[in-house]
Amino acid sequence: MSAAEKIEIPQKTLPDQWHEFSVLRTRFRASQETVRVSLRQVLAALGELDVSESLRASLELVLAEVLNNICEHAYKEQDGGMIEVAIRRAPNELFCHTIDEGEQLPGDAVPQGSQPELDGPMTELPEGGFGWYLIHTLTKEMKYARIGKRNHFSFWMDLEASE
Amino acid sequence: MELTCEEVQGTCIIRARLARIDAGIALAFTQNMGELTKGRAERMIVDMSEVQFIDSSGLGAVVASLKQVEKGGSLELAGLTIGVKKLFSLTKMDTVFKVHASVEDGLASEVAA
After folding, report:
1. B83/A contact by beta carbon, under 8 A
2. Bridge partner list, A89
3. Which residue from A82, A97, B4, B99 has the fewest beta carbons nearer than 10 Å?
4. Does pTM surpass 0.95?
5. Would the pLDDT of B50 be above 90?
6. Which has the closest alpha carbon to B56: A131, A33, A67?
7. DSSP secondary structure string for all residues of A60-73
């Protein structure tokens, strides 16, 4: 998707105002274990919907990256911070919203997600830097806002065109 | 962590008997793989068919495992499940690793080569 196409996507109304139903809403204290548990809950909740295995895999990956980022960067690997995840389904898309009370994203914006280079010698292969690249690649739209002391991050995924 | 090595037709088959390689286990995975591959200047194939999920940290651990293989050794992957296959394709790591549909395919491909 080109940058121009991204800009043309119309601004969404508030999620609470759409005609959709809630898939899941969960709130937990940040840790690697609670992230695992919440991902399991999300997959279980999705299991009741008619969602392709491919989209399920994509959502698990994107949400894992978003939640790991919150644990590692917003909360600087200190367990116990609040994380809230809400997932809603509209006719053609999934909407996911996360809230945390950790550090603001650098530059008050969604980080760039360029693909790590694999061209160099094997000893130089990247062992990190894939997180935001994956989030950018697998979602169709993202929004970030710092409201008070909270980070609000939202992303949308197409129900059909799951890569 | 359940990582075992079994010699099959002169190749070390490493069975990854774990459902997830994620941020919580990435470091331990790299260390365990290091212990398992240490001193092995031979062909190794990791059977990934039980691994249902890998995140970016887990991917980093698999890459780190490849980088710590000793000279003369090789590390290949087999049996990627749907989500893992997608991760390797998106990150183009499927061009870095030799990936086989199954361990059997991997063993057969050596014969062909």
Report:
1. yes
2. A21, A94
3. B4
4. no
5. yes
6. A131
7. HHHHHHHHHHIIII
Residue A83: other Cβ atoms inside 10 A: 25
Which single residue is written with the structure tokens 């499940």?
Answer: B81
Print burial letters for B30-57: b (CB count within 10 Å at least 16), e (below 16): bebbeebbeebeebbbbbbbebbbbbbb
The DSSP letter of residue A79 is: T
Residues of chain A contacting B28 with CB distance shorter than 8 Å: none
Chain B CA closest to residue A119: B96
Reported confidence tier of residue A7, pLDDT bands at 50, 70, 90: very low
- Determine the Cα–Cα distance for residues A32 and B23; give it in Å rounded to an integer: 7
pLDDT digits (tens, 9 = 90+) for A49-63: 878 888 999 999 999
Determine contact, residues B46/B8, Cβ cutoff 8 Å: no
- Banded model confidence at residue B104, pLDDT cuts 50, 70, 90: very high
**A 102-131 residues inside an 8 A Cβ radius of B:** 115-116, 118, 122-123, 125-128, 130-131
Eight-class DSSP state of A81: -
Q: How far is B113 from chain A (nearest CA, A)?
A: 22
- ipTM, two decimals, is 0.91
Count Cβ atoms below 10 Å from residue A10 Cβ, excluding itself: 6
The two tokens of residue A86 are 């809400």
Under 8 Å CB-to-CB from B100, ≥6 apart: which residues? B45, B76, B77, B78, B79, B106, B109
Residue linked to tokens 């989500």: B83
DSSP string, B16-33: E--SEE-TTTHHHHHHHH
Q: Could you tell me how many CB contacts below 8 A there are between chain A and chain B?
A: 78
Q: Which of B55, B41, B113 is nearest to B84 (CA)?
A: B55
CA distance B87 to A57: 9
